[in-house]
Specification:
Helices cover about 75% and strands about 0% of the residues. It is an all-alpha fold. The mean pLDDT is about 95.
Length: about 70
């Protein structure tokens, strides 16, 4: 669990340092669960730079998954 958290935090740092379009082009190919784990740990302004550059379908799906997390 702790090892996984370190991996996710490492990915958060990497994607946070990238331009939104660059990060989005890679994240579009990642599993939904991975994207969610990364987005939940990112600052909202960083997510806001990536999400619009993702494919429309993926952005909608990820947004739906994020919004259902509290339920």
């Amino acid at each position: 669990e702790e090892k996984n958290e370190k991996k996710i935090q490492h990915l958060v740092k990497i994607y946070s340092s990238m331009k939104g379009q660059q990060a989005a082009s890679i994240m579009d190919r990642l599993p939904d669960e991975t994207i969610i784990e990364i987005f939940l740990r990112m600052k909202s302004d960083q997510v806001a730079k990536i999400l619009p550059s993702m494919s429309k379908e993926r952005a909608i799906k990820v947004t739906q998954l994020l919004s259902s997390m509290d339920e």
